[in-house]
Specification:
The chain has helices at residues 2-24, 35-50, 70-86, 134-140, 146-156, and strands spanning 31-33, 55-60, 66-68, 93-100, 106-112, 160-166, 170-177. It has 183 residues and is of the alpha+beta class. It has a 5-stranded mixed beta sheet, with helices on one face. A two-stranded antiparallel sheet has the order 1-3. β4 (93-100) and β5 (106-112) form a beta hairpin. It starts with a helix and ends in a 6-residue tail after the last strand. The model is unreliable at 134-138 (pLDDT under 50).
Length: 183
């Protein structure tokens, strides 16, 4: 029990330090990011976390790469994928889709067939430590900072996080990038 609590505290401190560092930065390193490789990595992470309890699909219709901080974007995307696995019951589906947008940009969407989030919680879901369900969040081991970190990473990439959810149907978290981020 002490080792479990120590691990939880360590994850919390690491997330707080990450968030603090992101809030203090005005920009991140710019480098090419292979989205094909990123999608392979996200699939592996989802399948490892799921341990066969979910169907994981990956779709890449954009066929493009992004520019930005590979480390930070991986952190943001990975958080969305791990949340999808955590909050989707056994037998559910998780889809990671990278596609072009009508305005020449691109979006990475993580859709799940999980519990869904009641509409009244959506405006606050990216706030530090905000939890829709304290008991469910505690059971899945999150720190309550992941979506806040993801939102800050996207802001530093002049991108945004869109959230759609319906209770009993699932949620879609979408990272929307402008055309200037595509390679």
């Amino acid at each position: 029990l002490m080792q479990e609590q120590s691990g939880s505290m360590q994850r919390l401190v690491e997330d707080l330090l990450t968030l603090s560092r992101l809030e203090a930065q005005e920009h991140l390193p710019e480098e090419p990011l292979s989205m094909a490789s990123m999608l392979v990595t996200l699939r592996r992470e989802a399948e490892a976390l799921s341990q066969g309890r979910h169907t994981v699909r990956v779709e890449d219709t954009a066929g493009m790469d992004l520019t930005g901080s590979a480390k930070e974007l991986h952190s943001a995307f990975s958080n969305l994928v791990s949340n999808a696995v955590r909050y989707t019951p056994t037998g559910g589906e998780i889809t990671i889709r990278f596609e072009r947008t009508a305005d020449g940009g691109a979006r990475l969407a993580v859709r799940d067939s999980g519990y869904g989030i009641p509409a009244q919680h959506l405006p606050r879901i990216t706030e530090r430590f905000y939890r829709v369900s304290t008991s469910r969040s505690r059971a899945t081991g999150g720190t309550g900072l992941g979506l806040s970190i993801a939102k800050h990473v996207l802001n530093l990439h002049q991108a945004r996080l869109e959230i759609e959810s319906e209770v009993g149907v699932g949620s879609t978290f979408t990272c929307v990038f402008g055309a200037s981020r595509l390679l």
